């Protein structure tokens, strides 16, 4: 994953019962961890039953430093982003979008 400046393209969809109107969940769409640093990208709300495609830029700018609970703090700078890419320990992709979601594809 040492491709600074590239993109990570993701396509996903989730399903939930039609009659359910519970809460949509907001959290980072992608998390990269390495060298004791956690970075999160995105966090939009997505509609159910639609294919969604997002292009995640692998460079600083929209990535945020995350605390232990995954809460977004300030924007990551180039040095922090590059440090994570040098030694990626985990790459996490969001799979939960709604409180009554039945599956992710």
Automatic annotation (TrEMBL):
Keywords associated with the record: Disulfide bond, Glycoprotein, Repeat, Signal
Name assigned to this protein: Uncharacterized protein LOC106820129
Domain Laminin IV type A stretches: 1-105
InterPro entries for this protein: Laminin_IV
PROSITE patterns in the record: LAMININ_IVA
Source superkingdom: Eukaryota
């Amino acid at each position: 994953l040492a491709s600074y400046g590239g993109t990570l393209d993701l396509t996903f969809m989730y399903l939930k019962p039609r009659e359910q109107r519970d809460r949509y969940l907001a959290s980072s769409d992608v998390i990269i961890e390495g060298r004791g640093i956690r970075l999160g990208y995105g966090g939009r709300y997505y509609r159910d039953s639609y294919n969604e495609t997002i292009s995640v830029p692998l460079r600083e700018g929209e990535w945020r430093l995350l605390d232990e609970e995954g809460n977004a703090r300030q924007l990551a700078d180039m040095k922090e982003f590059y440090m994570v890419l040098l030694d990626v320990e985990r790459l996490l992709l969001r799979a939960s979008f709604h409180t009554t979601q039945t599956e992710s594809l």
